[in-house]
Amino acid sequence: QVLLQVLIILTGNYNFFNVLTIVLAFSLLDEEHVGHWLGRPRRRPSNGWPPSLGSVLGTLLELSTYGLLLCWTVHYFGLEIDWDRKLLDSKVAFTYHEFTMWLRTVTLPLVGVASLSLSWEILAAMYRCACVRGCFWKLWATLQWAIMATATVGLFAVSLVPFTYIEHESNGKLWPGIHQMFGAVERFQVVNSYGLFRRMTGVGGRPEVILEGSYDGHSWTEIEFMYKPGNVSAAPAVVAPHQPRLDWQLWFAALGPHQNSPWFSALVLRLLQGQPDVIRLVQMDESRYPFHTRPPTFLRAQLYKYWFTSPSEGRPGPAPWWRRQHVQEFFPAVSLGHPTLESLLSQHGLK
Fold it and tell me: In this structure, what DSSP letter does residue 259 have?
């Protein structure tokens, strides 16, 4: 999980989300892993030589697993090294149907493997309770085991619901009682699926809202934000773990009509008014804000789709980071007191 989060940090920009996930992952370590940092010697079985058959088989199984994962990754993601261009090329070498069928094949068996693993741990813990000396301490250990085992089984059961969200047929095959248990505790967010953008948007182009201002209603100037894509020649900003809230929300706004984002009308109003606090959310360096001397008379917004350019798209001059295509008007041209703007502000209670 930590490796996955590090890879996401290196290839994406999800603010502090990945850092929080890494912290949660490290919270699972116990004194067997971090005891030496706390000055406690780690309890290890005696290292005899030659190693036992179980140790050898365990090591071989682990190495085989990593080898298979590597081979499958190379095969199913078409990894190839282009030595001439010094690039690692990749492509998805399986279809959506094949992926769906694979999920359908492995989801329920994985639930079975997890159930067997949990059962083994519970039985091993029960055996350790039976080995405790003294009747009182045996009863005390058994009571602790019963409480922890019940809580663990309950937590495991409700976690099967979000775990199987990725494959709806498997989710429907779960015992109805598990769904009822999950419904009873869902509001407490006890268990969750890995849910932040697990279904990625922007596969057919990243939607972006581009604000434009004008003094005469004919000549329009784009307003660049500090972090979001705009100027196709500007490199993406790496700002994690900082979260630029306005730029982040503008991306969500681009996923639907502006009526779904009432705050956008308020943003347009404040920029038309030239409110300094709002302008600083757009550009901290006021010289980079095209209307820093006086506010624009008109504002409008256009919806574009953005794609990264590839190294093969060689052009004279500085290479652009993005290519974009105009989709439609996102927000009509308005000015202070414009009926459309006034109606939207009144409708959303922002007057």
Answer: G
Which residues fall within 8 angstroms of residue 132, CB to CB, at 6 or more apart? Answer: 138, 141
Pinpoint the alpha helices (H) of the chain.
2-11, 17-26, 31-34, 53-76, 96-130, 135-163, 168-172, 176-185, 245-253, 263-273, 276-282, 339-347
What does the block give as tokens for 118? 């949990």
Three-state DSSP at 208 gives strand
pLDDT tens for residues 116-165?
999 999 999 999 999 999 999 999 999 999 999 999 999 999 999 999 98
Q: Is 46 helix (H, G, I), strand (E, B) or coil?
A: coil
Residues 6+ apart with CB under 8 A from 151: none
Tell me the one-letter amino acid at 149.
A
Provide the sign of the torsion angle of the four alpha carbons 28, 31, 35, 41, taken in this order.
negative
Q: Which helix (H) or strand (E) holds 307?
A: strand 298-308
CA dist., res. 334 & res. 217, Å (int): 9
Separation between Cα atoms, residue 306 and residue 24, nearest integer Å = 34
Burial of 160 (0-12, 13-18, 19+ CB in 10 A): buried
Tally Cβ neighbours within 10 Å of residue 304.
21
Residue-level length of the chain: 351
191's enclosing H/E stretch is none
Question: The tokens of 139 are what?
Answer: 């009863």
- The strand pairing partners of 304, in sequence order, are 208, 326
Cβ atoms within 10 Å of 220's Cβ, excluding its own? 18
Contact 31, 38 (CB under 8 A): yes
Type of residue found at 158? V
CA distance 66 to 60: 10
Is the whole model's pTM more than 0.70, yes or no? Answer: no
Q: How does pLDDT run across 63-76, given as a tens digit for each residue?
A: 999 999 999 999 99
